[in-house]
User: Fold these one by one.
Assistant:
Number 1:
Amino acid sequence: MKSFISAEDVTNIPALIQSALDFKSDPFKSKALGVKKRVGLLFLNPSMRTRLSSQVAAANLGMESIVFNVGQEGWTLEFEEEVVMNGTSVEHVKDAAPVLGKYFDILGIRTFPSLVNREEDYSDFYIRQIIKYSGIPVISLESATLHPLQSLTDLVTIRETFQQKRRPTVVMTWAPHVKALPQCVANSFSQWVMAWGEADFIITHPKGYELKDSFVKGVTVLNDQDMALNGADYVYVKNWSAFNDYGKVLSHDPDWMLTNKKLQLTNNAKVMHCLPVRRNIELSSEILDGPNSLVTQQAGNRVWAAQAVMADILNTN
Ligand code: CP
């Protein structure tokens, strides 16, 4: 693939999942692939897992990685076209991105949404400007609308833990949070599960938290969480803010937090969360510290997903 922004960039999702699992079994099997190559990891927003797993993945492939915290360490970038730069932005992406294209073989970039301007957020404007002007392959380290490395990791984790000869039932449930969060993890997980096609998938959320139609095509959506949890093999817990009433927090209802009591409705489901998580707001400590939690295994798998994506890009560019 040329760039990795969405499930639509991947022609064979099961093969990419298998590639990640192969790297998990043998992390250094392609240790020469990235020699004399460099990946630049640009962060306009904070990160722990994405940053470090990408660096470990690059190192496993023999590739150097350089992290650049754009907002804190570099010039403030302007992304709008044809703008008179008389504000706080010092450098235009049209000038900066081609320079980055000279320094690196691959660029990764993380940009969060404003949660104010829905149209701009959902055009994934920042990452598309970097693709347009850098001239080199770009990996999304989480964009305004999608988090593809996380979603690939999530499918890797389901694939490696589900041993039965039937389709797993996967439920993604909205959970409360203290602040407004993007919809990108939820959008992305739904997009990837549906593109993968190897699970029965249900989303449950309170009324008002409907995701954008294009990300939930063919998905069963229920507002009754108990009904949705019934028989689940996996419960993916995530908060997101409203899409229709854009960026708004419409509920803090603590009844939506997953507990061991609610877990009894499921098929002894494994519980997933992308992390970071607000304990006892978004997800109960009894679950996070209990035997059904996959969150550490899931976060560990971030390395193998990133390695599979970087290897694919190195092999095809
Ligand atoms: N899940 C995830 O993307 O974690 P970070 O924000 O720490 O990278």
Number 2:
Amino acid sequence: MNTKTQIPQKLNKIEKAKAQKDGLEVKNELDYFAQIGWENLDKADLEIRLKWLGIFFRPVTPGKFMLRLRIPNGILNSEQMHVLAGIVQRYGEDGSADITTRQNIQLRGIRLEDIPNIFQSLHNVGMTSVQSGMDNVRNITGSPVAGIDADELIDTRPLVQKLQDAITNHGQGNYDFSNLPRKFNIAVEGGRDNSIHGEINDIAFIPAYREAKLGFNVLVGGYLSAQRCAEAVPINVWVPADNDDVVELSLAILRVYTQNGLSAGLREKRQTARIMWLIDKWGIEQFRAKVEAEFGKELLSAAPKDEITQEKKDHIGIYPQKQSGYSYFGLHVPVGRLSAETMFELARLAEVYGNGEIRLTVEQNVILPDIANENLDALLTEPLLEQFSINPSPLKRSLISCTGKQYCNFALVETKQQGLKIAQNLDRELEIPQPVRIHWTGCPNSCGQPQVADIGLLGTKVRKDGKMVEGVDLYMDGKVGKGAHLGKLVQKGIACEDLPEVLRDLLITKFAAKPKVPESSGI
Ligand code: SRM
Ligand code: SF4
């Protein structure tokens, strides 16, 4: 085939690579890749297409790949966690894992030659990493306490699973949805606290009653990026929760996005390719009409109000479930970092005390559900709870961080360790009466969502004393839960070395923190 004459020149580099060979094609070449070694792979296969299988070449640690899974609704079982722990364990010091801001897990240290075996072991326990990166629908988030929350309106678990199955062809890969103009995020909320950050998803399903029937109002187009951050907007659609309309509507939106990507110019510039740009171009009415035509039946107008009535919960601590006699434990995992050891331990605790289930939150933490109340005291004595506390200090508790410089080549600053250290020190120095959500992100891509934070820190470079040093831009006043809205940039270019001082002042002046009184010397 003479690709040069068939691939439109105006396509961006990624689009050209996709037009030459769909990302999913590398699925059939993994044994061959394992044989020839990563150094001998075609550059586009290595750096672009492997991401269709969730395999990320890391220029910071060449040869040691990151594997991004899919954990629908953030729920996995102990057997699956065991398998993931075993995978990273074999890489010794290189092996670790992160809970992500999309209720998901990424594994580190992976060697390409092991991928065929790893994929087999994931398949054996019903897991997949397919279509978790690049121009695909990313891990689909749902209420972390689905099915156990007494205030729940809709159990999101079956809906999220059905969505994932339809979009990924039950984890096998689905060419119908493997060539979107850009990444795509879907979130399904079933509770009252907007636990999934509906406002920053390309599609968000938000619980709402229409004529006394329970279903979802639908928001579209929310996203964060270096170019622009946009809150999701209502599309004036309501779908019931008790049939397949959530899935069918999502697929219709994805088809409209995919099919019009070229004609609407989305495939020319990566920076203006998210679905919000299509909505802007057409206007929400025309966008809705196109989606309705693709959906194939009349779309109902949105319910007058939604049911998000609560402040966002972080789920850390012990909470009664709607099942009488049972509680869930929310464990704080500092900046989401897991080791093989802690993963094995989580699996064991879930088996011994719960029903084997482990849940993840977008705050990068873990929930162990279904703990019989008579076992609460015993679980409290487990050594893992010293590391993954149910009652962490206030700033540490609400700290979120993207990957940062340790593994990400986009990063302008180290995030996780620095964020943790500063939070711990300020927790020691200050009495902080209310939770303050600090989000760190290593570059303007905003994976650590600084715009949803009380205090958002976005990595940058700063000139200080004639030298370029690591710094951050400061965002403030992001609101989550009920009435969510994005925060604003309030100060540019704070050198990281000055940050503890700046944060201390902010906490005192804006969040009513007070310096702790030093303990009396007893003299
Ligand atoms: Fe992200 C790219 C990590 C959530 C916006 N993101 C990347 C890459 C793949 C860049 C790269 O190749 O190195 C990062 C991988 C680093 C690594 O080794 O871990 C990366 N993003 C992450 C994670 C792991 C951050 C975390 O520590 O939790 C999150 C993985 C989620 C998942 O499980 O799928 C992650 N990324 C997000 C979010 C938050 C969210 O979804 O709520 C956003 C903003 C929301 C959004 O997408 O609208 C986000 N990531 C981006 C962007 C900017 C997208 C854009 O439209 O411009 C990029 C760059 C890109 O796509 O070109 C990016
Ligand atoms: Fe990497 Fe930037 Fe995303 Fe952090 S925000 S993970 S530094 S791309």
Number 3:
Amino acid sequence: MRRKLAAGNWKMNGDAALLAELGTLAEHQNANGPQIIICPPAPLLSRAHEITKDSPVDIGGQDCHAATSGAHTGDVAASMIADTGATSVIVGHSERRGDHGETNAEIRAKAQAAWAANLTAIICIGESEAERTGPDTLDVIAAQLDASVPDGATGENTVIAYEPIWAIGTGRVPTLDQIIETHDMIRTKLTDRFGKTGNAFRILYGGSVKPTNAAEIFTAENVDGALVGGASLKAADFQPIIDALDAS
Ligand code: PEP
């Protein structure tokens, strides 16, 4: 039985007002519902943890460096994220892959760094619009999955987030059939590679999840939750998504 998970990626947004939203969100959760992880920008991690530490809401980072320390100005090590009280970190988000040229090999190394710091790695994969309309969509996603997930991944130390790049922040989402087909393929690839353990990985869908489309997306058997950007910034938007997941 996989615990459902709603993860919120604040991206480069966040201030005291948004932390107040987090307090509202934390107050309304019950420990038996889906797991909830909020990923604020690195400077807000400690304050976010202070606000949520007595609630069922967990805190995560948005990225980490693969190294444990050193001359990497502006970067953050996984152990530093863990030190704030966070319990997970997103790696390989398409905005990191695009803005910073991150490769699958780097993302693998970041996931291993996350594990070494006792963080769960939320590894993102997903196709571009050209790849979605091309003939090899599932092969492209499968290759990215293989190359981004290190050996040693388990359902405890790793979450997979399938996020079509063309759906992020655009208001466009794949059809339910496309989501089902892609998540089923990811599940099969995970069980082919990791055996029975492959059934324990949570697979999140991400890309323009809103209160209006969440319930339909969560009907898919291998959708174990969502990674949510824009709609995680307001408790009033994120809560109905959490409720739809809880009811699914
Ligand atoms: C994301 O940033 O991971 C994301 C899915 O964003 P949005 O929900 O805004 O499309």
Number 4:
Amino acid sequence: MTTPGTPQGAQKGRVVLVTGAARGIGRATAARFGRDGAQVAINHPPGEREHAQETARLVAAGGGTPFLVEADVADPAAVERMAVEIDQGLGPVDVLVNNAGICPFANFYDIDIDLWERVHQVNLRGAFLVAQAITRGMVAAGKGGRVISVSSISAHVGGAQQVHYCPTKAGVSSLMKCLAIVLGPAGITCNAVLPGAIATDINAEDLARPGKRQYFESRIPMGRIGRPEDVAGAIWLLSQPEADYINGAELLVDGGFFVNLQ
Ligand code: NAD
Ligand code: RM4
């Protein structure tokens, strides 16, 4: 009998790329795959090497093999270099987790065109660029695989201070639906995971606003804000053989936040 997280057969040695794995959900995801004995490419942007090294330590502690790779996912040349580095260092990717993202909370009239562009470039263009660069090798390897993108509950609901961010998440969900069609014939499934409110650096300031955290907790049927590990677990589930026929889906990971309307 095997227990979840035990290195077993095809799980061990899988090549997994997690973008934005220096901190938060990406770090927890890298650590989760590390516990399978996977080879985990830990992408981080320039300036976040030290955080990424902590992720690498967690991956190694779980029995995985960490491989640090620097790239701003919004930069096409850097993404191409990353794809070559991973291919040369680890071989073709089995599981791509598009996780890198930013959400600088801002009032509508304070969002200038540069901020709008940057949020789109990291969140949506980044997911497109990485998917294109990495799945070329996956298709050529002919082994099938997974693309799992971290979208958001914000793909379906608005946010007064997230006017620039929510449309990028709707875009990421849509990107996965399109790629599910393009890559399904190659045995590569493409799905989106939609976290609700998860306590990480991205929303630390927002959740610290008077009453915000308590308000969210009162609206979430599970009674608590999510943890990065909650999302990492859902991503991992989609990477399992049992998820082979799930393609083009959106999976909310929000403790029931979204459905609690009435
Ligand atoms: P976080 O701030 O802890 O992590 C973001 C990660 O993205 C960091 O590791 C950072 O280094 C990386 N990153 C940022 N810009 C990058 C770039 N240009 N290139 C490469 N990496 C870059 O926040 P998080 O909550 O862990 O966010 C991870 C993903 O989850 C994001 O896509 C975010 O939109 C999504 N999400 C988060 C929540 C939440 O409540 N925390 C909810 C829904 C969706
Ligand atoms: C999510 C959702 C969360 C927010 C993060 C940054 O999509 O809106 O509430 O904290 O983004």
